[in-house]
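Why this split exists: single-chain examples teach little about how molecules sit against one another. For that reason, every record in the complexes split bundles all components of an assembly together and asks for one structure covering all of them. Below is a record exactly as it appears in the raw files.
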Amino acid sequence: MVDILHRVGIKSSLNDTYQALATREGLAAWWTTNTQGESKVGGVLQFRFGAGGFDMKVLELDPGKRVLWQVVEGPEEWIGTKVGFDLEQDGDFTIVLFKHQGWKEPVEFMHHCSTKWAVFLMSLKSLVETGKGAPDPNDVKIDNWNCGTTSDDLGASPHDRSWHGGRGHPRFGRMSP
Amino acid sequence: MVDILHRVGIKSSLNDTYQALATREGLAAWWTTNTQGESKVGGVLQFRFGAGGFDMKVLELDPGKRVLWQVVEGPEEWIGTKVGFDLEQDGDFTIVLFKHQGWKEPVEFMHHCSTKWAVFLMSLKSLVETGKGAPDPNDVKIDNWNCGTTSDDLGASPHDRSWHGGRGHPRFGRMSP
């Protein structure tokens, strides 16, 4: 098992950062504008990027401390993995310790997702500090797997895989209604 | 052993990206402006951030394919770890697969370094694509461990540790002349 780890510090109260992680409106403002579902323990959140995306079961919502999800639908490599955000105050900063845990293998798609998570966490930081994040489809592009258009992302070429699709399942994007 | 992994895609030739990784001038333009030493196999490169930094022994320089270093001086957690960049062409993009391998434990400092590497790899991408990177001291700040000034970075408080220092060695920055 291998994990993606990150740390960002946000000049904010614990509660302001927590709200950006624990509410649908917050998540839609830094990760993907197309965020649906209910952010409550036992509920499922649907994050969509173009036509594809991830479904996350909400495992923990501990105000000001922790948000934890488990992936129940999405790219094969993501199914069953857990995505968590632990918060603590350190002076003027809320520290976010991020973990995407339980990858079976350190595949190339995991390298991509690691960089992409960092970019989205910087979007979270920007949202909370300035009121403006950079959620999909206006996210910062990192490589040829997220070219930014749905048609590119879901192209037939295995090189057109995107954030929402991993090697071997270029048609993942069509799972959604 | 745990690793930091990243993937960026750069619209460039293999050689242009390789030059940014294999030459002192290239490295100084995206990682830290204070880069000294010789980029040759068996040589040592000195990367400084404020007064602290890392010494890297150059293990491999394979034109258009790979750059590999080993940390020989720096924060305790970094000593002996390896930092590698593998390159491959994919259409218009040079893909950089980045690995910082051999961390003993997934400490909080590793979370910080993972995010910080992503930010610096985006600086590399920007440098090669546009001619302008964001190396230290003009790097994008991610948290309270790199506030951007030497006095902050080397403060007595354990919370003032920076990119060049890890938990438990706040005075690491003073190793340099």
